[in-house]
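Posting here for the record, re: magnesium ion.
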Amino acid sequence: AQPLLRVSGLRKHFRFKDGWLGSRQQVRAVDGLSFEVLKGETLGIVGESGCGKSTTARLITGMMQADAGEISLDGETFWQPGKKISAEARRAVQMVFQDSHSSLNPRMSVVDTLAFGLLAHGIDRAVAVDYAGRLMDAVGMPATEFADRYPIELSGGQRQRINIARAIALRPRLLLLDEPVSALDKSVEAQVLNLLVELRESLGLTYIFISHDLNVVRYISDRVVVMYLGQIVESAPSDTLFSSAAHPYTRALLASKPSPDPREKIAAPPLTGDPPDPINPPRHCRFHTRCAFAEGVCSAKTPHLQAKPGSHPDHRVACWIHVPDSGHSLAAGGKETTS
Ligand code: SF4
Ligand code: MG
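Prediction output follows.
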């Protein structure tokens, strides 16, 4: 498959003045992100809160402007510094958020909510209402039953279905789903995930699925990107990532994941403490302050994302352990393994 979305060198730092001396600070929310999303696939993005997942989504939808980098959609420049994304282009990328409550207007009925965006695009009211009914059918909420209801009369799962219907109304190419099932009960979660899978197939959509829940990401994603403090530390096809994660951070995340099958538990030192302050992230390998395998090289030289030797060709990791002759004692070809 061809890439639908290509993100290169994306960067977003939030600058602010801190304290009475007014010293300048910056939060490196997204710090040099490059990845691709292939047509028709679901790319999962995982990481702890504050790793830059949601900022990444906002930069891609154009809700927020990046400082540097480039985004292309279907081979054409979608965003670059100084370029404003046209309304036409923006339609191609839609977003669904976690909080289905605050994203729906409590004073608008379901049919009005769905027809509203279409009216704004100059579509005739009768046509918009008819189309809204078909959208409701598509997300499993028949218009005859739900058209005139208000958000307060719907369950969390039903509200999220309406948000999904609204997101697909303008026939986007790419949906960014930011923790779309995190607020739902487990039983409802499965139904909404299945709906998303069906819609992806029937409408030819491509997804970016952001979540801290590794079980959910594993279920829905074809490939997964792991973020830590604004950077990608590992990326791989989903099966490869969940069976042979290579980065100590990914392994720690997986080791602390509640798993339905204890045999698949990955042996790794569990993650301790909170992520460091993104205002002053640790230099070079940003994970070195929490990594059980940190050595001198880790805080002296920056490990870049590169192919993991001997793994799937699309498995990439940013860790000195996986770079031969890097100076890390666990690296294949390193001093301690060859002498
Ligand atoms: Fe740990 Fe070093 Fe690898 Fe960073 S580069 S994850 S500190 S072993
Ligand atoms: Mg978030």
